[in-house]
């Protein structure tokens, strides 16, 4: 059997990783400023993470949601405390798409409605409703197409006010748009969305799959706007590479047995990974580090010639260049051995390092980036 060839691959085979570095099979060392799509939050192979997962694997790795799993309660308690949502409920699943699919489904179960408002440049995943709420026709199969989703421009208060009515079930918005090119909903816009939703009984879903877990310099990016969503979705950084996702659910939304479900969600190993991540974020002050290093990175990168715009919060940074970013990314990777990310904006690259990256490591990138950009601009 061969692999179903859906991914364009770099010809690099990582075999070892530690902190913000990766080694390939030839022993070549790379600086990782992308964390495999914003997944690595506490750094590769963190000792506490390895210890927790190893201990758990030696005890029990998996049982389904038909028995008590104490670790789920520990995870919910720690996540509630660190995120500032101690009174919310937690539903555990396995990925970002699944978290959004469940949040949308739950919203509809809750108010009985079915129209969803999403935004231009959004990305919410590839399951049926999540992909329908994603602004990318290329990944929408005919069977996923639905007229239940309405796309509006992000940060357009007037368009939002006009579109909202009694038929709308939920609004789904990313804390910071990631795949779309790092666009931030303004504080004013989020506050307006929240207050209008509240008036009409529309549920507000904040997709924090990429922007959450401390990456923005707050636990959740929407906390800059000081709004409380009805549902918050998480994944990516939650497990530092172990597949785990979740939905944080407002206390007014009542559960019913059988309403949602998953075989693997919340298994012992996933919980051990997610608990280890929260421990490290808290004990090593990683949210503060994300804010400080992120500010430093954005400040320094702004003044580099060839940079048109820098958008972001904390360590979720989009750098818009005056030229397409593909050649710059390739040179960074192959010449300077630095991983960065692309976005659907062809001129914007994404910088999504581990939250414990140091200033010295960021300086390695800044020097390389200056060299690569100045060479490309001369061409
Ligand atoms: N939501 C956001 C904001 C994302 O960036 C992504 C993935 O990039 C997803 C959802 C989907 O997550 P997953 O790939 O884990 O299904």
Which helices and strands appear, and what pairs or packs with what?
Layout: E1 14-18, E2 21-24, E3 29-32, H1 35-38, H2 47-59, H3 70-83, E4 89-93, H4 96-111, E5 115-119, H5 128-132, E6 149-152, H6 157-163, E7 168-174, H7 187-200, E8 203-207, E9 231-234, E10 245-249, H8 268-283, H9 286-302, E11 307-313, E12 316-321, H10 326-334, E13 338-339, E14 348-351, H11 359-378
Helix pairs in contact: 2-8, 3-8, 9-11, 10-11
This protein binds pyridoxal-5'-phosphate.
Pyridoxal-5'-phosphate binds next to α4.
List descriptors:
14 strands; Aspartate Aminotransferase, domain 2; alpha/beta; seven-stranded mixed sheet; binds pyridoxal-5'-phosphate; four-stranded mixed sheet; 379 residues; 36% helix
Q: How would you describe the overall organization of this protein?
A:
The chain is an alpha/beta fold and 379 residues long. The chain has eleven helices and 14 strands. The protein has helices spanning 35-38, 47-59, 70-83, 96-111, 128-132, 157-163, 187-200, 268-283, 286-302, 326-334, 359-378, and strands at residues 14-18, 21-24, 29-32, 89-93, 115-119, 149-152, 168-174, 203-207, 231-234, 245-249, 307-313, 316-321, 338-339, 348-351. The strands form three sheets. A seven-stranded mixed β-sheet has the order 4-10-9-8-7-5-6, sandwiched between helices. It has a four-stranded mixed β-sheet with strand order 1-2-3-13. Strand 5 (115-119), helix 5 and strand 6 form a beta-alpha-beta unit. The structure holds pyridoxal-5'-phosphate. Pyridoxal-5'-phosphate (PLP) binds next to helix 4.
